[in-house]
Amino acid sequence: MLRKIRVYLALLCFSFITLLFLDFTGTLHLWLGWLAKMQVVPAILAGNLVLITVLFVLTVLFGRIYCSVICPLGVLQDCVSNVSARRKGKKNRFSYSKAMSWMRYGILGLFVAGIVAGISVIVTLLDPYAIFGRIAENLLTPLYRLGNAFLATLAESVNSYRFYTTDVWIKNGLVFGIAIAMLIIVSVMAWYNGRIYCNSVCPVGTTLGFISRFSIYRIRFNEDKCTGCGLCEKRCKASCIDSRNKLIDYSRCVTCFNCIDNCKSGAITYTPSFSFGTRKVKVSDPLLKKEHAMVRENTKGIERASFLAILGSLTLANTIKAQQLQVDGGLADIIDKKVPDRQTPVVPPGAESLSNMKRRCVACQLCVSACPNNILRPSGKLSTFMQPEMSFERGYCRPECVECSRVCPSGAIKEITTADKSAISIGHAVWIKDNCVVYTEELVCTTCERHCPTKAITLVPVNPESEQPQGPSMGFPGMNRRPVLKYPVVDKELCIGCGACEYLCPARPFSAMYVEGNVRHHTV
User: Of 188, 181, 191, 197, which Cα lies nearest the Cα of 74?
Assistant: First the structure.
C-alpha cells in the first residue's frame, strides 16, 4: 500500500509539473504553481524559509521522499527504469554497490561554490528541476503545441474556434541541443542503473541524502523474519541495500518502498527509529560492528564538510533579496527581422537588475514557456547561459501581461501588478538613422511615435522649412505641399523599454529602433 500511494502521488506531481510547462493559457499556474516553488533549489534561491523548513522537516521525518515523489527528474528516471525492466523482463535486476562519495560531495561542493560565487552556469546545469524544465520546454512543449494546432485546424473546419494556434519554434539551438543531451544522459543512466544519477551526480540528492541519515521513519530489517533471499536488494533502484550483511545506506535510499513490496517474508518494514546513523546494521555480528565503526570514521569528515556546505548555501539564500520579473509579448510573427547586437541584455520588469537575475535564476525556462508573446528566450552567453532574455522580433512587452512574474519559482522574477509594470523602465530605445525608412526610402513614417505607450518618442521634422507651402495652392489647401519627413527623438526619462517601437518598426532586416537594456531597473 505504501508503494502504491507513493507511485500515485509521484505520477500526479510529475503530470502537474509537466502541464505547467505545456500550458500556454496561464490557467494552471493559478492552481498548480506552488509545485514549481516546492523544488529545493528555487526555494533556496528565493530565500523562502517556509518552504525550506517544510522540505527539511519532510526529509527528517520520512527520508528522501522528495526525490521519489516531488522531484520531476527523479520520477522521469523511474519511468525510464520501469520501461527498461519491462523490456528486459527483469524487475529484480539491481544489486548493491558502494557509494561514490568522492563524486557526490565533490559535485555538491562545486554546486555550493557556484551559488556563493554567483556562477549561474554551474547552478543551472546541475539543478535537477531546471534540467527537467528545459527538457519539457524544448522537447515536450513544441509537440504539445503542434498537437494543439492540429486540433485547432480540425475545429476550424467545422466552424468551431475553441482552440487557437500558437507559434512553434526553436528559441535557442544550443539550449535545445543541451536539453536533448541531458535527456539522453539521464535516460541511459536510469535504463541501466536506476537512480545512479540521483545518488552520484545530483547535488540536491546528496544534500537530502545527508539529512536522511537522521530521518525518523526509515526502512529497517526484521532479522527474525529475514530469510536472506536478496529480493529486496535486487529491487532496490538506488542500489543501497546489502541484503547479505543486512546493511542499508540511508543517504542513498529514496524511500520508494520497492523493497517492502518485493519482500515475501515481511522482513522489511518502514517504521520510526531514533538510532541515527548512516546505516541500519545487524548489531549481533561483531564483524559488522567493526565494519560499521570503520565506515562511520571514514565518512565523518565528509559529513562535517557536507553539513557546513549546506549551512553555507542556506545562509547565502537567506541574505539575498527576493526578485521580481514581468514580461508581456507581441502581436504578429515577423520572421524576417534579425536580432540586434545589444550591449546590455533586456530582462523583464521585476528583475530589478541584471545581477539579481543572474544570481537567482535557475534557467528552468518556465517563464519562457508561459510568455504568450514570444519575447523571452534562453541566453546563449556564458555568464547568463540559458537564463531568459527579451528580444522583440516576434512581439513586444505588452502593458497588460504579467505572466512571467506569476510563474517564476525562484524569485528571479517577482510577481508585480500591471500598474507596477507600466512604471518600471527595463531599458531605453535607441534610434539608428541608417536603418530608418525616412532616410533610406524617404518615406513618411510615424509608427514608433504612434505605438509608444508612454509617449517617449516625438517626431521632429528633418527640415523645418519643409512644413511651409511650396508654390501656389491653386485653391486647394495642401495640394502643393511636400510630404513632411520627420525623425524620432527618444526621451529616456519616459521610455520603459517595452520594445513596441522595435517590433513594429517597418525597417528590415534590422529595426531602426532597438531597445538597449538597463543594468538596473528604475521607475519612471
Answer: 197
Closest CA to 63 of 216, 194, 201, 198: 216
Give one DSSP letter per residue of 501-521, joined into a string.
HHHH---SSS-SEEEEEEEEE
Q: Is the peptide bond before 372 cis (omega within 30 degrees of 0)?
A: no
Q: Give 410: exposed, middle or buried? Use CB within 10 Å, 0-12, 13-18, 19+.
A: buried
The rounded distance, in Å, linking the Cα atoms of 371 and 396 is 11
199-213 pLDDT, tens digit each: 999 999 999 999 999
- CA-only gyration radius of the chain, Å: 29
DSSP one-letter string for 324-337: -------SS--TT-
More confident residue, 361 or 25: 361
Cis geometry, peptide bond prior to residue 509 (ω within 30 degrees of 0): yes
Distances (CA, A) of 30 to 41, 113, 439, 445: 21, 34, 48, 42
Question: What is the average pLDDT across 386-403?
Answer: 93
> Three-state DSSP class for 469?
coil
Average pLDDT, the chain: 85
CA 498, 503, 509, 512 dihedral sign is negative
- Specify whether the CB–CB gap between 380 and 145 falls below 8 A: no
pLDDT at 336 over 80: no
Q: Report which of residues 381 and 474 the model is more confident about.
A: 381
Q: How far apart are the first and last CA of the chain?
A: 59
Query: Count of residues for the chain?
Result: 524
- AA identity, residue 279: R
The residue type at 54:
V
